[in-house]
Amino acid sequence: MKNVTERTSNPFGLRPPFDRTGPDERTAVFGYGDANADFHLIGDHPDVHGGRSTGVPFTGTESGVAIQEVARAVGFADGPFDRPDLENLYCSYIHMCCLPAGETPSDESYADLERFFDAELRAINAHILLPVGERATDHVLREYTTQRHRIDLDMAALHATEIRGRGFLIVPIREPTEWEDTDDEAIVARLEAILGRDYRQTKGVATLVG
């Protein structure tokens, strides 16, 4: 049984490589949750999925609340919405740094932060990756599967499906602000189905799956 750390927020003490915010503003929204989790929820950046005011991913925005509702429905989260208690779920962003109001991350800043995200993902060593939205899903499919070249990045079609990766099972989640009809029910049902079976996979296998 792995026991990475008991720390809930920024368990590995990451320090962002740049700070472009004002002196009284939050520098970054670090990873948060159960560092021994089997499920890793992966968002884009704080201005999309939240956390600028709380320091906790998936808080304070419409998308964040929707994702938390899913986490609560399957038993991953409880407690306050601004600082939930998470079990078997870890949350982080591919771009953890905050930017000045109105700015969006550049390709260069995503690239600059990639090594930090990758190091944390491998340290958590979850079995199931849950990328939220097109940017995070594209990154996860490119970096952790051999299938990106043959997958159309249609998030409506990919939502709540299962994709085998290199030692991971990937379940993309459509951007919650674009959810229609039963999209919320679909991701809850998919996660419940995964939890109901033996989802654990062998880590560190050299063979590429898929």
TrEMBL record:
Keywords: 4Fe-4S, DNA damage, DNA repair, Hydrolase, Iron, Iron-sulfur, Metal-binding
Region (Disordered): 1-23
Location of the Uracil-DNA glycosylase-like domain: 30-161
One record GO biological process: DNA repair
Any Pfam family: UDG
InterPro entries referenced in this protein's UniProt entry, alphabetically: UDG_Type-4/5, Uracil-DNA_glycosylase-like, Uracil-DNA_glycosylase-like_sf
SUPFAM superfamilies: Uracil-DNA glycosylase-like (SSF52141)
GO-annotated molecular function: 4 iron, 4 sulfur cluster binding; deaminated base DNA N-glycosylase activity; metal ion binding
ATP-binding found in the keyword field: no
Residue spans of biased composition, Polar residues class: 1-11
PANTHER family named in the record: TYPE-4 URACIL-DNA GLYCOSYLASE, TYPE-5 URACIL-DNA GLYCOSYLASE
The name this protein goes by in its record: Uracil-DNA glycosylase-like domain-containing protein
